[in-house]
Amino acid sequence: HGCAFPFPETQEPNYVATMSSTTTAVEETKESTLVLKAPPAEPVNSRFGVLCTTDLTLDISMEMHKENRQRVLEYLRANNDLPAKTMVVVQGGEAPTFHDTDHEPLFKQESNFQYLFGVKEPDFYGAIDVDTGRSMLFCPRLPEEYATWMGRILAPEEFKAMYEVDEVHYVDEMHDVLTSKTPSRLLTLYGINTDSGIVAKPATFAGIADFDAPATDTTLFVALQESRVIKSEKELEVMRYMNQVTSEAHLAVMRNCAPGLAEYQMEAIFQHWCYYHGGSRCMSYTCICAAGNNGATLHYGHAGAPNDKRIEDGEMCLFDMGGEYHRYGSDVTCSFPANGKFTDAQKFIYETVLAATWAVEGELKEGVSWPDMHTLAYRVILTRLAAAGLVEGDVDDMLAADVAAVFMPHGLGHMLGLDTHDCGGYPEGSKRSERPGYCSLRCVRVMKAGMIVTVEPGVYFNPYLLEKAYANPSQAKFLVKEAIDPFTGFGGVRIEDDVIVHKDHCEVMSHVPRTVADIEAVMAGTIYKREDLFKPTYGPGITPAQVPDVTYSAASSGGGAGAGAGAGVTQATPGDA
Contacts from 148-154 at CB under 8 Å and sequence distance 24+? Predict the structure, then answer.
């Protein structure tokens, strides 16, 4: 089940689905029509042949947001000498319109406001008494006509019960209500997002000039950033849920992918699965569905390159997609051959990236430096590229010359939470490196338990970066051009997991096909369930999963598909030893 192509009521589906399966595969016939290949038959209860995997989506308790508010207040009290009767005042997101029209795009709440209050609606304000922790919301006073077009207007008391705050008033009462509280200072949100370079918007409302509310005070921004970096158990529950949905959606895409389909059809399958099965109305970011050479473009899929290429036989696919739920996101990338069978060259590049992924995850725990993990990924990639003859020379010398950044120009990963590139990667006082690759790091922290990061190494054959490197003598001497040239048009491979940092290990939330053997089995239709996929685990006494040694040789390879692909991927536990 899980086909993303609904059938009209008058047409019977030409397949049946099993409740234990997760997807159906798609094959292209000689007549260029889609034939759905089904797992063993069991009845389904949907006229579209699609069976929902859950009866209900995850229930979100407002206790999570109460805990979030408390965490911010504790940070403010512990790290700042604030006067008594200080109040936090934040402004929620405003309802946008599309350029000069009256069309309203689907509203997504401002991230910090979502963290503190979990409010779905636009045009709200919130306030918190730092001393007592009492919380207030201010809702817009809507015109009566709103009920005609948008539904019944909720009263303040209903919002109070819905969002479990202490008080709710109208926005036009905000000045008078705050005045009655006699605050000594208002802390508003001001600070620079280190990913975008954009300044967070401080709250503004009629009469704010009557209060002591410094417009460029970063106190609240830092407190929110440091609080959001460490996820609570309730937040982790939401993100594990979204990773489960996203993993199932990637599995559906992999099962349905075939040469002849368009990239956007893979995007459509993913979005359908996330929404239909997981209640994920929005994606965390614009889907990247890159086939062939498009995989060398890191953020392919934008308006100018809208996932509109036809997928060709023999190409690699790089699909970077994640759904979100209650504004908490996921960010998972799968790379695989469009026809379901790796060539020797594809297998070599893929397992090079997989080796880097597992090496980092095997070391990731509280106390390690994220830039050091980036270097570890670079070292693994260069070592394997050298073993195959694509680069030559001492690995340490290549690291010093930034050769790895030619093949992996982006950072190893980023913080993940309410934003895909979540806040807090650069704490106060941090400086961004100027070195290639390292300058793209979105995080430079020492890891702490409760952080969520993405681990996403990659190898890309980007013509622009390669030409620059060939023209740079300090890098060109390490590059074996005649061995790299056959990868022209290859695109790239990226593997991305969403990972929770623990005291002595990391927990990989993503559960998608990762070994060559599992990918080929899923695409051949012999693995249907996520539970049957290999998933590495990490912890004291557990030997990290190992990728087979490099057997590919640029000098002798014919580029054909390798027999026995994926054999040798192992993981030993204390009980296995």
Answer: none
- Cα-based torsion angle of the residue sequence 375, 376, 381, 383 in order, rounded to the nearest 10 degrees: 110
Residue 260's beta-bridge partner residues? none
pLDDT digits (tens, 9 = 90+) for 99-149: 999 999 999 999 999 999 999 999 999 999 999 999 999 999 999 999 999
Question: What does the angle CA 278 – CA 116 – CA 195 come to, to the nearest 5 degrees?
Answer: 80
Q: Give the CA dihedral 240, 242, 244, 249, nearest 10 degrees.
A: -160
Give DSSP secondary structure letters for 410-457: S-S--B-SSSSS-S-SS-TT-----STTGGG-S--PBP-TT-EEEE--
Q: What is the DSSP letter of 20?
A: T
**How many of the other CB atoms lie within 10 Å of CB of 525?**
17
Tell me which DSSP letter residue 296 carries. Answer: G
What pTM, to 2 d.p., does this model score? 0.88
Instruction: Take residue 196 and report the two structure tokens written for it.
Output: 């975008």
| pLDDT digits 0-9 by tens, 411-438 | 999 999 999 999 999 998 999 999 999 9
Can you list the positions of beta strands (E) in 49-207?
Answer: 86-91, 125-129, 135-139, 167-170, 185-187
Structure tokens at 365: 């725990």
With CA atoms as reference, report the closest residue to 534 among 506, 509, 547, 515.
515
Q: CB under 8 Å to 385, separation ≥6 — which residues?
A: 352, 391, 407, 459
What are 133's two structure tokens? 């922790």
Q: Which helix (H) or strand (E) holds 497?
A: strand 497-501
